């Protein structure tokens, strides 16, 4: 069987890490996998094994974005005619991939990986024309595809409702390579707060974008440090770096909060955490939370849509708090930092919980799905 992945980009990010996991592990199952990206660059490209062929379809730098979409469709058609895949799998490139698949008569599977409503509201708040295009293009893509696959049960339900689909999308949880994560977490770090860990360390991993709501997290850290001293490392890069640094300065947190930037391997930072924290307003299915579970970290997370409550059993394998509530977040962090016995219990339960989200389970689910769609 041949599967062609059509994706937008491969820089550091949870979605891109999942693509690498899927492509690499499917290629080890006697499946020929090819990867078509808009631009053949990004740190996660280096994570792809040699067995997976990588090609690119450059997006036109045009004032007319619709023209760029047309060229993407043509590039996908050209690549598919060359590779002759049995299935096209689209992740973050739903519309051009689904259109190309329909033209060629190749069954196309579209990935649903984020809250569609909130994603459009926040990403295109001031770009109404682009928002309308994205909304209708997304609906068309999902109706052209033979199957939509979400990464959580609740996201599948929301996708059916939002895009007015006739049937509920299938769902397969994101998976992680626990053994590889543990191996990569052993890398040595030279950050001063880790070399001299005299103060409890809180770690969060995520792109510096509105959906992660690091502003609320910073407010929570300011509240926490009124009673319990702790430091925060945020691993990730993004467009809000300058605004977040201003917030850090305004709250007088420069001595206890550090933005360490993008890291292709964030696991050594996570491993050193006394608490892992996620402050997201919304997600599709947070990869960093699963990775924190796998590393056996005590977790405090917002109960965001979607997936938080499908990953974490509140009070058992982590603590869930309301979104955009710095006081509740601070209280959760304080409880874990002060009650180390409880933190150890969360840690043990986190490792057990991680077994529900292995790479083997995810890849087996997708292999079965692809074979059914391709009728192989």
**Range of strand content:** 15-25%
Protein structure class: alpha/beta
Mean pLDDT: 91
Q: Roughly how many Å is the radius of gyration? A: 21 Å
Oligomer: single chain
Instruction: Give the distance, in angstroms, between the N- and C-terminal Cα atoms.
Output: 7 Å
How many helices? The count is: 16
Report the helical percentage. 40-55%
What is the H/E string?
A: EHEEHEHEHHEHEHHEHEHEHEHEHEHHH
The counted number of beta strands is 13
Overall tally of domains: 2
Main beta-sheet annotation? 7 strands, parallel
Strand order of the biggest β-sheet: 3-2-1-4-5-6-7
Name of the CATH first level of the largest domain:
Alpha Beta
Explain what you see.
This protein is α/β, with parallel strands linked by helices. The protein has two domains: 2-175 and 358-374, 3-Layer(aba) Sandwich (Rossmann fold); 178-357, Rossmann fold (3-Layer(aba) Sandwich). It has 16 helices and 13 strands. It has helices spanning 14-27, 65-83, 94-104, 116-123, 128-144, 153-162, 178-184, 192-195, 214-224, 241-250, 267-271, 287-294, 308-311, 326-338, 340-354, 359-374; strands at 2-7, 32-37, 53-56, 87-91, 108-112, 147-150, 170-171, 201-205, 231-235, 257-261, 275-278, 299-302, 319-321. The strands form two sheets. Strands 3-2-1-4-5-6-7 form a seven-stranded parallel beta sheet, with helices on both faces. The protein has a six-stranded parallel beta sheet with strand order 10-9-8-11-12-13, sandwiched between helices. Helix 1 (14-27) links the parallel strand 1 and strand 2 (32-37). Helix 1 crosses helix 16 (359-374). The mean pLDDT is 91.
